[in-house]
Design brief:
12 strands; about 290 residues; alpha/beta; 9 helices; 3-stranded parallel beta sheet; 5-stranded parallel beta sheet
Length: about 290
């Protein structure tokens, strides 16, 4: 089965790919996702592959060693498969399933997809939450970082954790959130500082701040703050190392929580103190 679309940035691509991986692991079918190629070098499962995939033949590894052949082959294969998708009478084993943005396919209950010939799929809402939990260990192994991407993550977390305090990851999402849903989750930096200070007043806490724009360190005052590595991959996986993660609703922090198996607390517009955040533990300095 070939995943035929690109949706969003890194975290969206991880979520989309991982749902199909879970489906592939469950039903023992091959999954190929050329749309993930631009991120493939960061991850152990995909870095040495012709096309990011699972459960495929040895040709995937063999072609990946040809630096010139790889991009040409992917473009050619994509064009051939797209042509055949529109001319299915020429090749009966090729089928396709493309869904609109408002459509949803539950892969937990779907069993026939990719069972016969090649199936091309496209669309955002292919989901299998139960299979994602069942096959989480395999997915985590596939998306483990290669060493050169992992080192900055470990360095940032070790610096934050060196004082022995719990480390809370703060995902500051600005950038595209000024337009997303009318700016509903485009919070001023002061809002994040306010929430962080309400946590620090409860218990000794170290923070790792991962932001898509530069922030003046002085705005955090005397709080124990470390910045993430500053790259999308580095910040994403640094958040996944933290004891808890806070940020506006986003697939970015959601992936960090899933991968790292860490609690995630979304910050909504009405949240000004950590007391407003649903599910946050009742912890104080006296009981920490």
């Amino acid at each position: 089965m070939r995943v035929n679309d690109k949706f969003g940035q890194l975290a969206n691509r991880l979520w989309g790919f991982s749902n199909f991986l879970a489906y592939g692991y469950e039903h023992k079918i091959s999954i190929l996702n050329p749309g993930f190629l631009e991120f493939a070098t960061a991850f152990r499962g995909s870095s040495n592959q012709f096309v990011p995939a699972c459960q495929v033949t040895a040709i995937n590894h063999w072609v990946s060693t040809c630096a010139v052949v790889q991009p040409i082959s992917i473009k050619l294969a994509s064009r051939v498969l797209d042509y055949l998708r529109h001319h299915q009478s020429l090749c009966w084993p090729i089928s396709h399933l493309y869904i609109d943005a408002d459509e949803h396919i539950n892969l937990d209950t779907e069993e026939k997809l990719g069972r016969s010939g090649i199936t091309l799929v496209g669309g955002w809402n292919f989901r299998c939450p139960q299979l994602m939990l069942k096959h989480r260990n395999q997915i985590v192994e596939y998306f483990a970082l290669n060493d050169r991407y992992l080192r900055p993550v470990e360095q940032a977390f070790e610096k934050a954790a060196s004082g022995g305090k719990p480390v809370f990851g703060i995902h500051v999402r600005r950038g595209d959130y000024e337009q997303f849903e009318g700016g509903r989750y485009f919070y001023p930096i002061d809002r994040y500082v306010e929430l962080m200070r309400s946590i620090a007043e409860r218990m000794p806490t170290a923070f790792i701040v991962c932001s898509d724009e530069k922030i003046d360190r002085n705005i955090f005052g005397d709080m124990d703050v470390t910045f993430g590595p500053g790259s999308p991959v580095g910040d994403l996986y640094t958040l996944g190392h933290c004891d808890r993660i806070l940020g506006p609703p986003s697939t970015f922090s959601h992936w960090a929580s899933y991968y790292g198996d860490k609690p995630l607390h979304f910050i909504y517009p009405e949240h000004h103190s950590i007391d407003d955040v649903e599910g946050f533990p009742e912890i104080s300095v006296s009981t920490a």
